[in-house]
Each structure stands twice: as C-alpha cells, then as structure tokens.
Amino acid sequence: MIAQTLTTGALCTIACVVATSCQPGTPANTQATPAQAAWTGTFAPIGDTRVRGSVAVTKSSTRDGLDAFVSITGGTPNTPYSWRIRQGHCEDTNATVVEKITYPSLVPAADGSANVTTPLTTPLDPKTSYIATISTPNDTTDSVSTIACAPLSLGGM
C-alpha cells in the first residue's frame, strides 16, 4: 500500500512536470485539448505602424467555448481597427479566418490603447498554426491590409 502510494505520488509529480499543472487527487493530463488550451501571442508591427499588443485565447470561465482577448497600444485615438483569428502564418497573405463572426473593433482611447474580449465557438486544433491580425481602420474584408500580426503559441491552462 505504501509502495503503491509512493509510486502514484511519483507518477503524479512526473506528470505534473510534463503537464505544468496538477492538483492533489486529480489525475494529471499531459495533452492539451482545444477546450483546455491557452493560445497566446504578441503582435509585431508590419511596415511603419506603431501598433503593438498581445492576444490570448482561453477557455471561457462563464460558458462553453473560448474567449479571445486582444490588447493594443500605439493606435490612432478614436479610430477603429479590425482584428481576426486566422489559420496559418504571418507570412500568409490569404490566411483563412477561423470563425466567421462579427469581431468587435478595437477603438483606441486618447493614449492609443484599446482592448476587447469576444467569445469564440470554434475550437482551435492543437495541430494547426494560428495567427491574430490587426488591420487598417475600418477594413472588415477577409483580404486585408494587415498592420500587425501575432503568431499564436499553445500553452497549458
């Protein structure tokens, strides 16, 4: 019994290191699933834009599905910017929009900062590459003039 308890504890400890989280009495999960995944990225400006920021896509705390949180600085005050979560890489000129929803605009305050949170219902596949893009003001088309791009990296929650 003691040997079994020690072995179970050791396995949980090893699994915790691999999974980066473990709660006592809870089996460790070593593989992130779309509902558990936290995707994060940092926007890099493209061209001469000053817009920078970050993005996080996490499991919603209030409903089934994901929430996307986008935060920017360096925007033109009171000027709406478009953003999207896309499948692909920043180098892709026609990266596919992941979810055809009405993404709320980012509208910077006087200091050039803005943030928005929006629900997503489409799960993100851990085996697929994703990016978040920020586009020129009022550009809501799928073929956009991207001014900042953030490759999304998958981490644990």
Write down the domain tally.
2
Tally of alpha and pi helices = 1
Write the CATH homologous superfamily of the largest domain.
Superoxide dismutase, copper/zinc binding domain
Question: How many β-strands, per DSSP?
Answer: 9
Q: Note poorly predicted spans.
A: 1-36
Average pLDDT taken over every residue: 77
The 3D shape can be described as globular
As for the CATH topology of the largest domain, it is Immunoglobulin-like
CATH class of the largest domain: Mainly Beta
> How big a fraction of the residues is strand?
25-35%
Largest sheet: 9 strands, antiparallel
Cα Rg: 19 Å
Commentary on this structure:
It is built from one helix and nine strands. The protein is 11% helix and 34% strand. The N terminus is likely disordered. Strands 1, 2, 3, 4, 5, 6, 7, 8 and 9 form a nine-stranded antiparallel sheet that branches. The protein starts with a helix and ends with a strand. It is mainly beta and 157 residues long. It has two domains: 28 residues; 125 residues, Immunoglobulin-like, CATH 2.60.40.
